[in-house]
Amino acid sequence: MENSQIQARIAELEKNQAEIKAAKDAIKQQLENDLEYVQAQDEAKTANLKKKAIKDQLLSMPENQTLTETIKNNQLDLSVLKDILSAELLDFYQKSNKEEFLDAEGKIRKFKIGATLLKNGDRNENQGDYGNYKKN
After folding, report:
1. Dihedral angle sign, alpha carbons of residues 51, 53, 59, 61
2. Rounded distance between C-alpha atoms, residue 57 and residue 49, angstroms
3. Quick one: DSSP state of residue 125?
4. pTM > 0.85
5. 49 and 76 share a domain?
């Protein structure tokens, strides 16, 4: 693949993104100018505040705090395990040039390798080498 093809594809992506942004801005402007919509939005905001207060009250109960902590710990473990599995699958692909393997039950499992174009621009101190945000 030629570098010029990649550059052309990036230019096409950026053009489409600009068109989408312009259309979204136009819709947002129309919504903000509609009185009935604005009133409904205000009512929804009030209902959401009430819902949040009730939810916070329920989540502050000791048994729910324990469950919340369990969920956070398991999500962190899952994230780490997924990162490890991704690295292992990439290594497997590089060594075998295959995008499938047998799982513990003898079934064929497939996976895919992906690439993502990173954004240009300034990086802040919370971003890692690949543009993703560092986990604390």
Report:
1. negative
2. 12
3. T
4. no
5. no
3-class state of residue 127 by DSSP: strand
For 63-97, what is each residue's pLDDT tens digit? 999 999 999 999 999 999 999 999 999 999 999 99
Taking CA atoms, 21 is separated from 13, 15, 17, 24, 29, in Å, by 12, 10, 6, 5, 12
- For residues 91 and 88, give the distance between their C-alpha atoms in angstroms, rounded to a whole number: 5
Same domain, 45 and 68: no
Domain that holds residue 85: 62-114
In DSSP terms, 100 is beta-bridged to 110
Distance CA 67, CA 104 (A): 31
Kindly state the tokens that stand for 26.
């136009």
Residues 91, 52: one domain?
Answer: no
What is each CA distance from 126 to 78, 79, 131, 135, 136, in whole angstroms? 21, 18, 9, 8, 9
For 24, the token pair is: 């979204």
Q: Dihedral angle at the C-alpha atoms of 70, 75, 77, 78, nearest 10 degrees? A: 140
Q: Which residues are CB-neighbours of 105 under 8 A, at least 6 positions away?
A: none
- Domain assignment present for 72: yes
